[in-house]
Amino acid sequence: MTWTGKLAVVIAALLLVGAGRAEALTLQPVGSGFASPIYVTSDPGNPDRLFVVERGGAIQLIENGEVRPFASISSRVSTDGEGGLLSIALSPDFASSGRYFVYYTGKEQSPAEIHVAELVGTSSTPRNLLTIPHPNQDNHYGGQLQFGPEGNLFIATGDGGGVNDAEQNAQDLSSLLGKLLRINPNPSGSAPYTVPAGNPFAASPAPYDTIWSYGLRNPFRFSFDRLGGDLWIGDVGQDDWEEVDFAAAPAVGIGANYGWSCREGNESNPTSDPACGSAGPFVDPIFQYPNPAQGCAIIGGYVARGPGLGDLWGRYLYGDLCSGNIRSFALVNPGLTDRYEGASVGSLNSFGEDSCGRLYAVSGDGPVYRIDGPQAGNCAAAEAAPPLSASFVGIRALRRKVLRHKRTLITAWVSPCKGRRGDPVTLWRGRQRMGTRRLDRVCTVRFRPKINRRSRFRATAKADETYAAAISRKLTVKVKKRRPRG
C-alpha cells in the first residue's frame, strides 16, 4: 500500500469516531429458514410480494407472512466457487406477462459459464438470452440484473477472476467480462435480445455491442436511484480498496471506463495488462474505503427513497461482507458524511428494494430483514405522493470563443428557484464530469473550465423531493485563433 493509501486508512479510522447516527436503523425479520439466500426483490406492482433468491437455484415467495416456493432452476445451476443463481429482475410488466430474468452460472462447463435467461411464471425452462464464457477461474462472476430508468436490462459481470485481472478482460472491449452490459430482452429477428439504440459500442460485432461501460473488477451489486435514475455500482476490491462508482442520470455512465485493472480505487495498480498503457481517461470512484481496515468486500446497496427512513432519505446505503455493518453516505462530500447506521447483519450477502422503496438486507445464514427507520414505512402514503414538478437548467458562457489553454466563465441556473438554494448542479464536458457547485441565493452557479479544443458542455440538476432531474441544452465553446503579431 502506498503512503497515500496508509494516510487514507488513518483518516478513515478518525472519521469513524462519532460517525453513528442519533436514530439507529432497526432490522425487522420478514422471513427465515432460507437456504443460502443471496438476493431479494418485489413484484413491481405489489411491494408486499417479495421474491427471495436462493443461491442453489430456488426462488421463494413471501406473501401475507407466508413463505412458499415460487420457481426453481436448481438442476441447471452450479454453485462452484462464487457461482449460483445470483439475482433476478422482474419485468416492469410482470403483473400481466409473468416475465422475469435470471443471472446464474450453469453446469455445462467447469468453471461455470454465465447465463442470463428469461422465465415466465413458475416455469423451470428458461429462454437463454446470453451465455458468457468464464474460463480458468470460478470467482468474480458479478451477478446483478436491474432494469434501468429507460426500461432496458442492465447486467453486471466480473472480470473472470484471479489476481490483477489475470485474464485481462476488464479493459478488453472484445470480452463481456468486467463490464456493465445493456440489452432490450425482447427478441430481434433470430437474435434472442435486441441491442438498444444508443449503446456506445453498437458498431462492434455481437455480442460486444451490448457493452455499456467497462473497467470493473467484481460489480456484485449495483442499483439505480428510483427518484433521479443515477447509477451506483459497488465494485469489490482486491488488496487495498473497496469502491463505489457513480454515474449521473441521464447518461448513467455510457462508455465509462472505471479503471480496473489499471487502477484499484483511485490509485494505480500493478498489472501486466498491456491495455493500461493506452487506456483512459478513467472515471474515479465517488467513494472508497480501505481493505482490510474497514472490511473485505463491499456489498453495494441503494439510495434510500422509501417511507419512514428519516434523515437516511437520499443517502446511499451500503455494507460489507466481513464487517456486516450497514453504513451510508451523502452524494456531496461522501467521505466526510460516511457513517455507521447502528445496524449489522451477519454474513451480509445483499440489499434489496421493493416497489415502494423500502429496503431489505439479506443474510447468507438465512434471515431476510426489512430495514426500518424511526417512523413506520407506509407504502400507501408513498404511493400517494404528488408527482415531481418539472424544472429547467439554463447554461451560458461569458465568451463562446476562447484562446487555447485559457478559461471561460460558464454560468448555469435553475428554475423554478423556490426550494432549490444550496442544491448541487454538475457541469459535464461530453461524458466527463467537470465539477459540482451548489446553487447560490438566486439559484446560479459558476464554473471556469480550461478550453483546449472545441468543447460541448451541459449542466445537470439532480432530482429532490419536489423537482424532477433536469439537463440543459448543449453549449459549444470554440478555440479562437491567435492573431499574428507585427
Could you list some keywords that capture this structure?
4-stranded antiparallel beta sheet; globular; 486 residues
Describe what this molecule looks like in 3D.
There is one protein chain. With 486 residues, the chain is mainly beta. Helices cover 6% and strands 38% of the residues. The protein has four helices and 37 strands. The strands form ten sheets. Strands 28, 31, 32, 35, 36 and 37 form a six-stranded mixed beta sheet that branches. A four-stranded antiparallel beta sheet has the order 1-26-25-24, with no helix packed on it. The longest helix is centred in the first third of the chain and has 14 residues, at 3-16. The radius of gyration is 23 Å and the shape is globular. Mean pLDDT is 90; it is low at 1-19.
